[in-house]
Task: inverse folding
C-alpha cells in the first residue's frame, strides 16, 4: 500500500505533457498547486484574423478548428497555463477558392510543411499571457492580453471558463515575407495581422 501511495504521489507531481491525450481534471503542478484542466470546446470557440488587402479593405478569416488545454488554479479559479493548437488547413476565408489556395500555399501559411499554429504559455500574470507563438515553423515570444471569465456551471450542467483576447503580429516576423507593391507604393497584403480569440473551455471530468 505504501508503494502504491508513493507511486500515485509521484505521478501527481509529474509535469503535464503539452500534447494530447488529455489529462485528468485535477492534476499536480510543479509549484504544488492543484490544477483543474479545461478542454477548449471547438464548437463554441472562435479564432479570427484580419489583414489589409490592396490598402482598401480588410480580409477577415477564421480557423474552423482549435484545440487545447487550459489549467486553472483549483483554489483561486485563475488560469495558470495554456497550450493551444490550430490546424492551418482549417482556415476559412469566405467563398473565394482562389484566396484559400493562396493563403494555404507556401507563400503564406504553407500548410503542407507546417500543419499547425501553436501557442504555449510561459507565464500568466495580470491578465497577460506570455508565451511562444509558432506560425509557419517560426517561434516568437509574445504577450497576449486577455479577459478571463471564471469557472461557471452553465445551464447544460457543464463547468466552463471563457477567454477573450486580441493580439497584433507582424507576419514577416514569422517568415511570411510576401512583399509585392501596388502602383501607388502600397502593399498588396498588409504586414500587420490582427488576431482575436473567443474561447470556451469545459472542465475535464
Result:
Amino acid at each position: 500500500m505504501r508503494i502504491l501511495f508513493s507511486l500515485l504521489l509521484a505521478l501527481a507531481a509529474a509535469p503535464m505533457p503539452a500534447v494530447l491525450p488529455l489529462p485528468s481534471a485535477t492534476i499536480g503542478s510543479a509549484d504544488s498547486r492543484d490544477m483543474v484542466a479545461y478542454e477548449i470546446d471547438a464548437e463554441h470557440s472562435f479564432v479570427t484574423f484580419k489583414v489589409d488587402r490592396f490598402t482598401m479593405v480588410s480580409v477577415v478569416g477564421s480557423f474552423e478548428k482549435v484545440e487545447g488545454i487550459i489549467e486553472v488554479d483549483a483554489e483561486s479559479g485563475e488560469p495558470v497555463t495554456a497550450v493551444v493548437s490550430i490546424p492551418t488547413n482549417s482556415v476559412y476565408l469566405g467563398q473565394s477558392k482562389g484566396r484559400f489556395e493562396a493563403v494555404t500555399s507556401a507563400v503564406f501559411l504553407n500548410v503542407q510543411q507546417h500543419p499547425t499554429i501553436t501557442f504555449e504559455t510561459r507565464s500568466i500574470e495580470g491578465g497577460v499571457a506570455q508565451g511562444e507563438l509558432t506560425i509557419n515553423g517560426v517561434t516568437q515570444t509574445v504577450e497576449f492580453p486577455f479577459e478571463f471569465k471564471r469557472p461557471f456551471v452553465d445551464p447544460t450542467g457543464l463547468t466552463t471558463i471563457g477567454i477573450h483576447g486580441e493580439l497584433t503580429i507582424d507576419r514577416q516576423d514569422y517568415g511570411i515575407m510576401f512583399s509585392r507593391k501596388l502602383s501607388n507604393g502600397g502593399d498588396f497584403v498588409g504586414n500587420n495581422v490582427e488576431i482575436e480569440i473567443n474561447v470556451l473551455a469545459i472542465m475535464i471530468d
Remarks:
- The first strand starts at residue 26 and ends at 28.
- Residues 50 and 60 are 5 Å apart (CA to CA).
- The chain has a mean pLDDT of 87.
- Residues 2-13 form the longest helix (12 residues).
